[in-house]
Specification:
Elements (H helix, E strand, L loop, with lengths): L9 H24 L1 H27 L3 H4 L2 H5 L3 H21 L3 H5 L6 H25 L5 E3 L5 E3 L2 H14 L9 E2 L6 E2 L5 H18 L4 H18 L5 H18 L2 H4 L11 H29 L13 H7 L5 H6 L7 H11 L29
Antiparallel strand pairs: 1-2, 3-4
Helix pairs in contact: 1-2, 1-10, 1-11, 2-11, 5-7, 5-11, 7-8, 7-9, 8-9, 8-13, 9-10, 9-13, 10-11
Length: 381
């Protein structure tokens, strides 16, 4: 058993889980399908949350009782929660810029690496948190410790295994620059981020929440992970990472303002906090990520490509379905900013006109009309 979910309140616990799961899926659809929805969820809501948190921080600094006893201060005061929510929001706005092709940055080839950068940062935030718990075990000699937010964590090899799994997971992201906008402008697409990475990530992240967020894992370790995964594997091919960023930021903002929902309410469900269970979960996460990276290395050698500069899942079903959703080149040219150089436009066209099945080892090199390498190309009319 992973959670204390069974008992007299079982139906309530499952009802709470269903509300979170369905709510995240619905809000994700609102955020991805409409500009107004995105503006409210990722603009207005974060601003309101920030004002709320700043007001509490000022109250705490002045010793105000209302602030000192506020649930946000009591249960959400660690560096991790603030780092996570703002890193997730930074990812959201970068992805939105790419999917709507906003200005030069939304179309810039170099900015296509932003998804990799921000996801790697988000993973490392959790890895540091896992190692922070491991420090309590290996340096301070504590097999359990209570965080500043009152959560009891089990410290030990489970944190080491999962921390290593998280680092490996970063290197399971492939085709860093192969990111596109969808034809219908609803999604930023990363075709090379297939089920291989998604499953490895989900297992690692579930273990992280189980290790370090034992009072929230029922929700953020299962509902929050399943919501973007089901969407990404079912109706939003290639858009999983956008789903993940959107739902993660929503959940983090909700918890920052309403932490008692998961901590201490009729819907609260805690993990069993069993050292053996934590170690088994961490071992599974580590093995899964080693397997994922091994498979990526195998495919990259088979295709003779650099898995980070080029795609390794070209020709696979998920890759083709994601590539088929790309915006047309004519649309991208029609919305290209006037400041775009001929070389920038030529590069964009070259990547966007790749066939749906991809081209193993493709690297764009600008050429002139005689087929020679050049730093500037003729602007496509």
């Amino acid at each position: 058993m992973l959670f204390d979910v069974w008992g007299s309140d079982t139906l309530i616990h499952w009802a709470g889980w269903a509300m979170v799961f369905i709510g995240l899926i619905v809000l994700n659809e609102v955020g991805r399908r409409t500009k107004l929805g995105a503006a409210i969820i990722f603009g207005v809501a974060p601003l309101a949350m920030t004002i709320y948190c700043v007001a509490i921080a000022i109250g705490v600094s002045q010793g105000a009782e209302w602030a000192l006893t506020n649930p946000t201060h009591v249960y959400q005061n660690s560096w991790f929660h603030y780092a996570k929510v703002y890193a997730a929001l930074a990812g959201c706005w970068g992805f939105i810029a790419i999917k709507y092709q906003w200005g030069k940055i939304g179309k810039a080839h170099w900015f296509r690496a932003w998804p990799f950068v921000i996801v790697a940062i988000n993973i490392m935030i959790a890895v540091v948190s896992d190692f922070e718990s491991a420090y309590h075990f290996f340096v301070l000699g504590e097999s359990t410790w209570v965080t500043s937010e009152g959560a009891t964590q089990l410290a030990g090899w489970n944190n080491v295994f999962n921390g290593i799994a998280g680092i490996i997971n970063i290197f399971c992201m492939t085709g860093w620059w192969s990111v596109y906008a969808s034809e219908d402008q609803t999604d930023m697409l990363w075709p090379d981020m297939t089920w291989v990475f998604i499953i490895a990530y989900d297992l690692w992240n579930f273990c992280y929440t189980y290790n370090c967020l034992p009072t929230h894992s029922w929700y953020c370790g299962i509902a929050l992970l399943l919501a973007p995964t089901i969407a990404g594997l079912w109706w939003n091919k290639g858009g999983w990472i956008q789903n993940r960023a959107f739902t993660l930021s929503m959940w983090c903002m909700f918890c920052q303002v309403c932490p008692m929902f998961a901590n201490d309410s009729i819907f609260a469900v805690h993990s069993v906090n069993n050292p053996a269970v934590n170690t088994v979960v961490a071992s599974i996460a580590l093995i899964a990520n080693i397997a994922a990276l091994s498979y990526i290395i195998y495919r990259s050698k088979k295709l003779k490509v650099n898995p980070y500069k080029q795609e390794v899942f070209v020709g696979t079903k998920d890759f083709r379905e994601a590539m088929a959703r790309r915006a047309s080149t004519d649309y991208l040219l029609a919305t290209e900013p006037k400041s775009a150089t001929a070389a920038e436009i030529a590069e964009m066209v070259a990547y966007n006109e790749l066939p749906v099945e991809g081209k193993p080892g493709f690297v764009y090199v600008a050429v002139d009309k005689n087929g020679q390498e050049a730093t500037e190309t003729i602007k496509r009319e």
